[in-house]
């Protein structure tokens, strides 16, 4: 079925993209438990350029509060250690040959509350992105009606579909953030 000048599936895909970005940002928030995704955003100065950590080392979680970073090139150990220290994650790796051991310290209640605020900031940015997609979709629909490409009834039907997709995406964002907040506040 053709929906006229707007593709509802494309609107939904763009809204899901905002949720996907939110999940990625939230995975980088420390929750007091070791997670390999914690080190994903770290860039290492390697071979004359910045590279993601996972392209110069493998990250394992041998214990709930410990990360093990196996550096593949012995010459890169110092660069990886420096990148982890400088990452503003508050982590202090210990070097044992080509393996870096990164202990995950306990989070204080104040730090947990700060992380919840950061999670809510990320969720608001995702909501704004979803609202921008909705606005773009509604603008396309209104322009098509103004140009005589669709009737007023079609405009109302498509606008309702766009709003339903928006409401569903906002509900998904709230659900993702609530789960992360629960994870952060768990002691």
TrEMBL record:
Ribosome recycling factor domain segment(s): 22-185
**Cytoplasm among keywords:** yes
What InterPro entries does this protein's entry cite?
A: Ribosome_recyc_fac, Ribosome_recyc_fac_dom, RRF_sf
Q: Which GO terms describe its molecular function?
A: ribosomal large subunit binding
Pfam families, sorted: RRF
Listed GO CC annotations: cytosol
Claim: Cytoplasm is one of the keywords in the record: yes
Locations listed in the record: Cytoplasm
Q: Which GO terms describe its biological process?
A: cytoplasmic translational termination
Instruction: Cite the entry's keywords alphabetically.
Output: Cytoplasm, Protein biosynthesis
Q: What is its main location?
A: cytoplasm
Q: Which domain of life is it from?
A: Bacteria
Q: Which family does it belong to?
A: Belongs to the RRF family.
Q: What does it do?
A: Responsible for the release of ribosomes from messenger RNA at the termination of protein biosynthesis. May increase the efficiency of translation by recycling ribosomes from one round of translation to another.
The record's HAMAP family line, in alphabetical order, gives:
RRF
Report the protein name in the record. Answer: Ribosome-recycling factor
Natural source organism: Ancylobacter aquaticus
The encoding gene is: frr
